[in-house]
Amino acid sequence: MRAGGGASPRPAPPPLPAATSATATLLAPASVAMPAPRLAHLRRLLLPLRSAAPHPLAANPGLQLPGPPVHPSLLLPRAMAGAAHAGVATGSAEYEEVLGCLGSLITQKVRADTGNRGNQWKLMTKYVQILELEEPIAQLKVIHVAGTKGKGSTCTFAESILRSCGFRTGLFTSPHLIDVRERFRLDGLDISEEKFIRYFWWCWNKLKDKTGDDVPMPAYFRFLALLAFKIFSDEQVDVAVLEVGLGGKYDATNVVRAPVVCGISSLGYDHMQILGNTLGEIAGEKAGILKKGVPAYTVPQPEEAMSVLMHRASELGVSLQVVQPLDPQKLEDQPLGLHGEHQYMNAGLAVALANTWLEKQGHLDRIHVKHSDTLPDQFIKGLSSACLQGRAQIVPDPQVNSENDKHGNSSLVFYLDGAHSPESMETCARWFAHVTNNDRIQEVSVEQPHTDRNSRKILLFNCMTVRDPQRLLPCLLDTCAQNDIHFEQALFVPNQSQYNKLGSLASPPSKHEQIDLSWQLSLQRVWESLPNSNKGLNGANSSKTSSVFESLPLAIQWLRETAQQNQSTQFQVLVTGSLHLVGDVLRLLEK
Questions:
Q1: d(Cα 451, Cα 432) in Å, to the nearest integer?
Q2: 3-class SS string, 331-384
Q3: Which residues bind Mg(2+) (predicted)?
Q4: Cβ–Cβ contacts within 10 Å for residue 466, how many?
Q5: Residues 41 and 511: beta-carbon distance below 8 Å
Q6: For residue 321, what are the CA distances in angstroms to 300, 309, 349, 529?
Q7: pLDDT per position as a tens digit, 70-112
């Protein structure tokens, strides 16, 4: 093992709010010829729990319930299920070692701790010096974007536009959904495993040699930001598009002192325990990325937030320009690559950022405008081809639909959106209502054909314990109800990624460890208390409209069994509340 390559044990998840206890003990696995760490991971995914999964729709007449449990491989993507039976681990051993080292940087310290602000912010300068990145960072041509909602989508649009203009691009976003390498895109593709390993060890070993008691190893996100700077510098990207991780002023990406242009997407209430309890306080943190002499753009904001942004811009002598949502007519009938009406706001901001970057770098001659009332061809191509998983994404379940539907109709469809703030919940609900009420054909990873069958809508939900479900769930439910959308069931599950943050060797619970479902039970109680939650299909009252599952694979298994037993019905499952949950679902559905 490389020097400093050993990862410390993964800390236990933080305690959950007090609620009725609910635990389940994992069964011991059958013998499988594969490495113990890999086996521990697969145990978490493959095995049923000791207590039988509930059947939430049992009260619905005429709806057949599943019979005996399905084969364990149904809980996994096909490729992973095959690997499990063959005893083959995915990814190289060295990559798993890298993920273990990264996992050791995840601490139990609450992000709101003052150590993440104040003095310890100065450690970022020290880390940059240790890695000799001062000059490389200064040479990067950066687009820097902060915000509460839409900053990742804005960055994705801007990167895609400039890549379509012929530039070599680097994109740093967070969080990842399935693999940590998603955070680092080169020319629109996740960085290769080989390059990631090489750059990781270069940074890891240098930092291990020069850190200690006075200067500890950087925390997880700070290390990833430093790694991004190293990757983009050595890969000689023409433009580096950086999404702020949290806040702005004290974010690890804010070591960039002279970006080419800055953007602030829509602001709202999120991470309040860190950024402040008012929109003004939150806006003040986001405005921390603004720099003297650097052009900046934002979108229409609530008055309280806008006044703070404008005041800070004035102090810096920056002309902060407000960008309106993109006019769809400027796209020449091409759809945006990211779905949802709200994406026109993010696209408008991205167009302004990309255009200013081109202007400041002297590259406006690269773009071609056919008509004054449309965007340049490269901009249209970039906006229409942008791709970002987990945002207004539609994925028919490939297993159920390929095995049981001979006519191409999708009997189990997942609608995934990582909304996790009250405002984004409303946006998510409007999107879900739009795409399901209109029964439109959506082409995402696979085609969702038109169907005239009955549909039943189910919510699959979890949120982090720092969120307030009494704000999130009412926003979602009320907006759906206003658009004539009613969920027949709500399923609450813990995130798989709570135990599988990085790779297959991350430390899941042992086979004897109990699963604490108190948070999921508290979510269920909030749901059951809401006035619109007792209306199922066609607004019919139901005495029980929700269930808690011990694990996500069990919930997916139940959905698949139910869809297989009721092929005349299309089950439309909205997955939301957490990007981690969305990533976990995608991981299980991935072929």
A1: 17
A2: HCCCCCCCCCCCHHHHHHHHHHHHHHHHHHCCCHHHCCCCCCCCCCHHHHHHHH
A3: 174, 243, 271
A4: 15
A5: no
A6: 10, 11, 10, 44
A7: 333 223 332 333 333 333 334 689 999 999 999 999 874 544 4
- pLDDT tens digits along 526-543: 999 998 765 544 444 444
Q: How far apart are CA 54 and CA 75, in angstroms?
A: 16
User: Which residues, in sequence order, are CB contacts of 430 under 8 Å at separation 6+?
Assistant: 340, 341, 479, 483
Residue 396 β-bridge partners? 413
261-264 β-sheet, strand order = 189-190, 184-186, 169-172, 239-243, 142-146, 261-264, 296-298, 320-322
The reply to whether 315 sits in an annotated binding site is no
Report the C-alpha gap between 551 and 49 in whole angstroms.
9
CA distance 562 to 560: 5
Q: What is the pLDDT of residue 369?
A: 74
Q: pTM for this one?
A: 0.77
Question: Are 162 and 381 spatial neighbours (Cβ–Cβ below 8 Å)?
Answer: no
> 243 among the known binding-site residues?
yes
Query: Per-residue pLDDT tens for 5-16?
Result: 444 433 333 333
Do the annotations mark residue 391 as ligand-binding? yes
CA distance linking residue 381 with residue 99, whole number of Å: 35
Alpha-carbon span 583 to 272, nearest angstrom: 24
As given in the structure block, the two tokens for residue 538 are 């066609």
User: Most distant CA pair in the chain: distance in Å?
Assistant: 69
Chain position carrying tokens 């005041």: 311
Q: 325: pLDDT confidence band, cut at 50, 70 and 90?
A: very high
DSSP secondary structure of 84-148: HHHT--SS-HHHHHHHHHHHTT--SS-TTSGGGSTGGGHHHHHHHHHTT-HHHHHHS-EEEEE-S
Alpha carbon separation from 543 to 60, 519, 562 (Å, rounded): 11, 22, 20
Contacts of 212 (CB under 8 A, 6+ apart): none
Report the chain's C-alpha Rg in angstroms: 24
Nearest-angstrom CA–CA distance, 41 and 73: 14
Pairing assessment for the beta strands 442-443 and 447-448 based on DSSP bridges: antiparallel
Nearest to 314 by CA among 337, 340, 296, 332: 296
CA distances from 301 to 263, 378, 531 (A): 13, 29, 31
Task: Let me know if 168 is exposed, middle or buried by CB neighbors in 10 A (0-12, 13-18, 19+).
Answer: middle
